[in-house]
Amino acid sequence: MQAVWPVPQALIAFERTTELNPNNAPAHAWRAAALTGLGRPDESLTAIDQAIRLSPSDPQLWLWHLFRKQRERLYEGLRRAGMPE
Description:
The chain has one domain: Alpha Horseshoe (Serine Threonine Protein Phosphatase 5, Tetratricopeptide repeat), CATH 1.25.40. The chain has four helices and no strands. By secondary structure, the protein is mostly helical. Helix content is about 70%, strand content about 0%.
């Protein structure tokens, strides 16, 4: 499956956004999505956790928790299938 947006360029944009405004929770969440798309799951988890910490009452909080849970399930399944970390 091909991404609908250029993931490496998006990551650069989200990283720049979080540098300029470290309290921008949605930028951290989108950064997590980009990191996942680039196969960087540990960094992705850190980014989504940062979004959750920054905005615990955000209207999109449910989505961030869903993202986190799905990410955990995905990588647990890959581990069980014998995929290297």
